[in-house]
Design brief:
With 224 residues, the chain is an alpha+beta fold. The chain is 16% helix and 21% strand. Strands 4, 5, 6 and 7 form a four-stranded antiparallel beta sheet that branches. Strands 8, 9, 10 and 11 form a four-stranded antiparallel beta sheet that branches. A three-stranded antiparallel beta sheet has the order 1-3-2, with no helix packed on it.
Length: 224
């Protein structure tokens, strides 16, 4: 084979490789519109969508059991009226905080006293609860995570001084969730509604500005 022919075949092979590489990149690139559609639901990318707990792994259940009822329909699509949710970890049942991991306690410490008996079963009269995160004691909101503030901002002023000790006169509280301002319950999460439905009508207008006469409230827990 001549050197010229061999060089031509080498160039052709290189060109074919380049074309295949471009086509592969185009096929595997993410669709921005699809990313936007996934993000619009406000769920984590790794959330497992479900319609029943049988679709979830052991130790998890579908949040439809907790009242979630999202739509599986894309905008403009006609679908069956089926509630959807996401797979969430089951609560850990406990009788004391010794059964909970670090940074958690059993709600029996807070006064919870549920039955740990299955229906029709005879059990010892022992209070049961679930493992929940401990409250984070704070003096300012700088000590709290994102989406939370220190309850000292709400007027709480507990003493964080051990009994018998002399401490500075500093108020302490606990890290609590920030209130979510809303105008309708569509802006609230599952199990919550906007307090405007209860008759609350605050103004969400910054001082000195002219705003539409729209009532605002905060997202609060709905009655079971």
């Amino acid at each position: 084979m001549s050197a010229a022919r061999q060089a031509a075949m080498t160039r052709a092979g290189f060109a074919l490789t380049l074309v295949l590489s471009v086509l592969h990149s185009a096929c595997t690139a993410s669709d921005p519109d699809d990313e936007q559609r996934r993000g619009a639901g406000g769920k984590a990318d790794d959330a497992v969508v479900c319609t029943g707990s049988e679709e979830c792994e052991s130790g998890s259940h579908c949040s439809t059991e907790d009242g979630d009822c999202d739509s599986l329909c894309e905008p403009g699509e006609v679908c069956a009226a089926v509630c959807a949710g996401t797979c969430v970890t089951d609560a850990i049942v406990c009788t004391s905080s010794n059964e909970c991991g670090p940074g958690n306690h059993c709600t029996t410490d807070d006064g919870a006293c549920d039955s740990i008996c299955e229906p029709g079963e005879v059990c010892a009269a022992v209070c049961g609860g679930t493992c929940v995160p401990n409250e984070v004691v704070c003096e300012s909101s700088n000590e709290c995570g994102a989406g939370k503030h220190c309850s000292t901002e709400d007027g709480v002023c507990d003493s964080n001084c051990p009994q018998g000790s002399i401490c500075p006169t500093v108020c302490s509280g606990t890290c609590v969730d920030n209130e979510v301002v809303c105008e309708s319950s569509n802006e609230c999460g599952s199990g919550l509604h906007c307090s405007t439905e209860d008759g609350v009508c605050d103004s969400n207008c910054p001082p000195g500005m002219i705003c539409p006469a729209v009532c605002s409230g905060t997202c609060v827990a709905s009655a079971p």
